[in-house]
């Protein structure tokens, strides 16, 4: 009987020691496992944030590269626009001057040739693809350089102002169009443009259909007004072009695009 109880006591004692040892081991083990799990999650969180940060920075830089290309396109288009507006201003001043001459009948072909070009237009085409993407998708927040955002929005505002001045120019041309029928022969004026939409200097010497100086002077006044509007828009475009170039330089500096 005693022999049977001895193994049972030993087994019970061994079981108690095992449970006690297990309890001690589990406490340390749980803490270690918790710490390792926490560390793994935390490192994963940091890694994910780092990847997201790199991704955002990459997207931001891609937008800046695209924006620079748009601005370069603007500077090129503005250069063409400026030259056109200045040439047109000179042309219209010459037209008005010839119309007001007493011997204007000697310059009929040039008067008609220039008059037809009053309606010619080469508007500035704003390359706004990138900024529209930034605004429409709410991605302006991706641009961390707030000075870039501020300058970009100011630049866009100036572009819209130039577009409004061009609209005013077109409205004034409509007045010239209405009054032109009282001064120019429609067939002769129409003949100054060929089937390919190119201007042609008349080989004949077409005349104005009125000698009334008041009517001619009123039309010449509108031409002079259009001339000054064209010249003014060329100056606005020059200022806008300078802003575009400054913005390009600022973006290159802030984002080190040349490196």
Automatic annotation (TrEMBL):
Lineage: superkingdom: Bacteria
Protein name (database record): Uncharacterized protein
């Amino acid at each position: 009987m005693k022999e049977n109880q001895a193994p049972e006591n030993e087994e019970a004692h061994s079981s108690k020691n095992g449970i006690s040892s297990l309890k001690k081991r589990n406490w340390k083990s749980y803490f270690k496992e918790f710490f390792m799990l926490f560390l793994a999650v935390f490192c994963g969180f940091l890694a994910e944030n780092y990847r997201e940060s790199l991704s955002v920075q990459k997207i931001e830089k891609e937008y800046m590269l695209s924006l620079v290309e748009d601005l370069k396109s603007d500077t090129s288009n503005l250069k063409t626009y400026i030259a056109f507006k200045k040439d047109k201003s000179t042309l219209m001043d010459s037209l008005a001057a010839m119309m007001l001459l007493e011997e204007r009948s000697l310059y009929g072909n040039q008067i008609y040739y220039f008059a037809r070009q009053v309606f010619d237009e080469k508007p500035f085409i704003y390359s706004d693809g990138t900024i529209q993407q930034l605004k429409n998708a709410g991605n302006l927040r991706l641009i961390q350089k707030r000075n870039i955002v501020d300058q970009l929005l100011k630049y866009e505002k100036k572009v819209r102002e130039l577009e409004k001045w061009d609209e005013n120019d077109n409205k004034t041309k409509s007045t010239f169009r209405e009054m032109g029928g009282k001064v120019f022969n429609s067939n002769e004026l129409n003949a100054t443009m060929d089937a390919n939409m190119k201007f042609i200097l008349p080989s004949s010497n077409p005349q104005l259909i009125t000698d009334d100086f008041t009517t001619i002077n009123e039309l010449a006044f509108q031409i002079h007004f259009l001339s000054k509007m064209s010249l003014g828009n060329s100056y606005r475009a020059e200022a806008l072009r300078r802003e575009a170039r400054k913005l390009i330089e600022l973006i290159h500096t802030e984002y080190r695009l040349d490196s």
